[in-house]
Write a structure and sequence with these properties.
two-stranded parallel sheet; globular
Amino acid sequence: VLFVSDYERRNFRLWGFPDHRAQTLQTGLPDAFFDIVPERTGDRFTFLIPARIDGRKGHDDLLRAVSLCGDSPFDVWIAGDGPARRALERMADRLGVTGRVKFLGFQRDMPALLRHVNALVLPSLRESLPLSLREGFAAGLPAVATAVGGIPELVEHGRTGFLVPRRDPRSLARAMRRLAARPGPADRMGETARRTAERRWRLEVYLDRLEGVYKELLEGR
């Protein structure tokens, strides 16, 4: 059985699944995410959270973090829809952050959207191995994310972004301010993230590894 993260593999082992019949193999990404050329305009740093709005991705913690940041020079774009969107929009209004938070709704063309942002933010409560973070890395974007599930297998703290505890808006706010205040280091983190994606998630790399798994199994028979 192939797992997309060591986190999921460990869980199955704890539930009694035989580890010798398991292997971790992170899936590849389409070339479109590696071919993104930035088209950023303006002088405000922009974070993007691409996630379904259903209470599991920490959108409420993100709004609280933005409210704690005072006049920090960054905006947040929320891409996605879901059953909690209306409540989240009302929360943004109550917290007074509607001028810095933009609800984009469901997006069909993520590569086009990634061209216009500086970093990703993902304060999830639980995750396996977020596809959105890998897509952002391929586009050369650093990330601020919670250290839950398989996310620490993606984000190298201080090198490709920052990891923060779940349900901790203050830590999230500090990490976002730190990244936005220093565009140069943020760009360098993004370049490190892109090199990571090239090495690990190019589609041909994934297919070679997958083919290797099949060959190993067939030879074993």
